[in-house]
From TrEMBL:
Pfam families given in the database record: cNMP_binding (PF00027), Ion_trans (PF00520), KHA (PF11834)
Family recorded in the similarity comment: Belongs to the potassium channel family. Plant (TC 1.A.1.4) subfamily.
Gene Ontology cellular component terms for the protein in this record: monoatomic ion channel complex
UniProt protein name: Potassium channel
Residue intervals passing through the bilayer: 49-66, 86-105, 182-206, 266-289
Its biological purpose: Potassium channel.
Amino acid sequence: MDVSEELEQLSRDGSHYSLSTGILPSLGARSNPRVQLSRFIISPYDRRYRIWETFLVALVIYTAWVSPFEFGFLKQPERPLSICDYVVNGFFAMDIVLTFFLAYFDKTSYILVDDRKKIAWKYATSWLALDIITTIPTELARKISPVPFQSYGFFNMLRLWRLRRVSALFSRLEKDRNYNYFWVRSAKITCVTLFAVHSAGCFFYLTAARYHDPQSTWIRAALGDNFLEQSIWRRYVTSIYWSFTTLTTVGYGDLHPVNTTEMGFYIFYMFFNLGLTAYLIGNMTNLVVPGTSRTRRFRDTIQAASSFAQRNNLPDRLRDQMLAHLRLKFRTDSEGLLHEETLDSLPRGIRSSISHYLFYSLVDKVYLFRGVSKGLLFQLVSETKAEYYPPNEDVILQNEAPTDFYILVTGAVDLLAMNNGVEQAVWEAETGDLCGEIGVLCHRPQLFTVRTKRLSQLLRLNRHAFLNIVRGNVGDGTIIMNNLLQHLRELRDPITEGVLLETEKMVARGKKDLLFPISHGIARVTISCPEKEGVARRLVRLPNSLQALLENGAKIFDISLAKVMSKDGAEIDDIEVIRDGDHLILAKVMSKDGAEIDDIEVIILYLPLTQCKGLARKTRDFYLFGFCANKYPYNFISSLVQSTNSLHWGNYTQNMIENRRERRSVKSQSCTEYD
């Protein structure tokens, strides 16, 4: 079978073989190192071979019990046990043959080796000798062994070499998600304990049964002089009882060694128990402590929070909020509702799929995202984080910075506002409602305090993550702002009316990109003023308007400023064209004779008296508006010249004005100074 097909099938099944012992491709590998094994070569990851391994483990468990028993209690073979031994040895002999056709994993090249010669050499230089010795029949082994080793059962002890298969099985089961780790580990500890007790009991009976003076043995003191004539079951139970009491305690004194041989074995067994007891206690501690340590850390955290509140004289309400939040967090972690560490360790694709499955249907119904693209919704859902809040906990505080906004999943929250120093409930949010979105989208402090009424689950969406996603979907950003404005109109709340009017004015002035003001906030520019040569250039943040830039420059250079120009002399009339790192020159306004003008009221358009009636004020107002806003003064002059032929502009014609407009310069000859 193709190795890649096997691994793919095992992966689909979710088996522990594919994830715990399968071959992982190297970094950057485009395919598996080997695609197909040679003919008659068995893959160690083949399902049929895994079944064969499990069957052999059952035979190893039989061997682990019968080998010490035959060695300790039997002096000659019993027919039923001999037949079973032959059958078991036959299966292990078959496994030896299969191993010569079993591909092995080379830890240096990280590939499956399927060359028969390499497989044979690898097996011959490792475990072949021990495997052959442990399958030799007992009668044949007694005949070829030296006289001191011809005792029945002695050779069978070598078959305990097969226990390595049980250890490998438990290692795989511990990594298999289909089996509970606690019970697998407990079963392994139990098997180790039973095997140690069984083996020690058989050995301790052996020291008494084959001692040269049967009257000076521990078992004679327990069962009497005719202990050899009693049933083998009674002798076995008595030996296991002694072994178990010695393992768990130092004994009760009813059974104790009598001769020196028994004392020597007893000393060795006690040393062995020290190590075994440490192994058992260590493993049980690892299984039990995680549950109790989690509770202990929770109690320590609660105690620390209480001490902090008491030490700093915090109000009872704040203290109760702290403790309630910690208790709820412990509960959600214990019940598996929120596993942040586990989720963070997963790839982004899996986390996005989980969020999409849990929350997409809810986010799709939120008013703010009506009409947006499915792609934007999927990206937003991937950035949400679920959080639980106990009753009467503040999620958002009024006037705090708008860093996040929330979608209510379950529960209920109140939106509160301060009125004459008293908190008043504005309205109650329910499932699917938003909290804090006005502050995030309108870039202003939060308007309300959001407080839970009962246990609530909310989806938190970070402001920066939200804006970054919307920047990649400009059309959806416009839809979101329109949805927000429509929602504010429908609320008809006195608090939100001011926000609505301000937002609509900004849209009317052409600031349709309200979702992206951060691009200016992070831009830095260098400003200088030629009239203030003694003042060094300054590196400042770029504000949201040219007027704000001129006001900042006026404070820095202590001079009235009216124009923003690039370093090559081009006048700038739109802040959107300024980029991060630009060098800007701020200039002031002067009359034709070089006098500095610090009041816009001293400037008036020069018009014939015949045309000033009814027109001069309007014209002046328009011109002053354009001049003060530092926008479109030349467009106004051009439109004014085109609209009337009876206006006289000193020595300037329409063409001259058009030329001046292109060069972004207006001479002060078109104006006159008056007292």
